[in-house]
Amino acid sequence: MRLALFQPAIPQNVGACIRLSACFGVELHLIGPTGFALDDRAMKRAALDYGPLGHMTAHADWTAFQAARGPGRLVLFTTRGATALQDFAFHDADVLLFGSEPTGAPDFVHAAADARVVIPIQPGARSLNLAVSAGIAVWTATRAVSKPVPRD
Questions:
Q1: Contact 35, 64 (CB under 8 A)
Q2: What are the tens digits of pLDDT across the range 34-57?
Q3: At residue 53, what are phi and psi to the nearest 5 degrees?
């Protein structure tokens, strides 16, 4: 299972996703361009000391990401999703993809997706924070494919 962020704009969200990647043992892919330098202090502060435990790969752009992505379905999380999260059947090789915070995923990313999933929220609410959505998705997907998280 892999987590991918399309053109993330907020370093704190990426920092939180680095922690998420480290804690759940999933790869993190950043698809550029990002809205900040990858050495941004805010991102490092949000990631704390989890950076070395995470497995992050930065891709210059969508084309580079697609070329390097490998096997597995591209599962786009979007407010324009077709399948509710609780109704989607995850596979262990899925790539969980999230759009940019201010704009979401453009039409060409929607067109490339093998599946589109929406996290149901209250009517009238616009959307969840990127890192919160990624956490919900990673936990749900890893639980669904029975990838246990080791316990001490």
A1: no
A2: 988 877 565 566 555 665 655 889
A3: -85, -20
